[in-house]
Design goal:
CATH architecture of the largest domain: Orthogonal Bundle
Shape: globular
Distance between the termini: 29 Å
Number of helices: 8
CATH superfamily of the largest domain: Winged helix-like DNA-binding domain superfamily/Winged helix DNA-binding domain
Helix content: 55-70%
CATH class of the largest domain: Mainly Alpha
Strand content: under 5%
């Protein structure tokens, strides 16, 4: 699906129709390469276009596509963050697990083992950033201070870790419907 703009906008943000179409196609291809999910891709493209269309200085940029990709990464991060749960409280999980049926416990153990395998394949720094944020519940600022990284570096590692985990879970068949 190619996202189009309203017909009254012949030149979007200073781009010709052809340039705008090429930018949207390139943007969609980039996002689809990260997500492998066309519905998420369409949502991210649409949100990216909405955010960039509000930029007053968009037409002054030398490379509008690079800006759109940067915004798209931020949008994708927001989408992934909304999908992931808050930090885990292992005590309440243990109590909930005691009430689960054996099939659910087996299913959860297999999924957890798979996630641990995905985490083990990550770079040590990315894995540590992810665990500090999602398991220990530290803020991005605290992680940056603890590991001597910039906050942007922490965000980059978190985004890539979340995308990697999500994609590998989906590729292995661990979708929300199978949970």
């Amino acid at each position: 699906m190619i996202v189009t703009l309203p017909p009254q906008q012949n030149q979007w943000q200073g781009l010709t129709d052809s340039e705008g179409r090429q930018a949207r196609i390139a943007l969609r291809s980039f996002i689809l390469g990260l997500t492998n999910d066309s519905s998420v891709t369409d949502d991210v493209v649409q949100e990216t276009i909405m955010r960039t269309s509000k930029s007053v200085r968009f037409s002054e940029l030398e490379n509008p596509l690079a800006y759109m990709i940067t915004v798209a990464k931020s949008v994708l991060y927001d989408f992934q963050r909304k999908k992931l749960p808050n930090p885990v409280d292992y005590q309440s999980v243990a109590l909930d697990a005691a009430n689960d049926c054996p099939e659910q416990r087996y299913h959860d153990q297999r999924k957890l083992a798979f996630i641990e395998m995905v985490l083990a394949d990550m770079s040590p720094l990315r894995r540590e950033v992810f665990l500090l944020r999602r398991v220990d519940g530290l803020s991005r600022d605290a992680i940056a201070r603890k590991l001597g990284l910039s906050v942007e570096g922490v965000k980059k590692h978190l985004t890539r870790a979340m995308v990697e985990i999500t994609l590998k879970l989906e590729q292995a068949g661990w979708t929300d419907a199978s949970v």
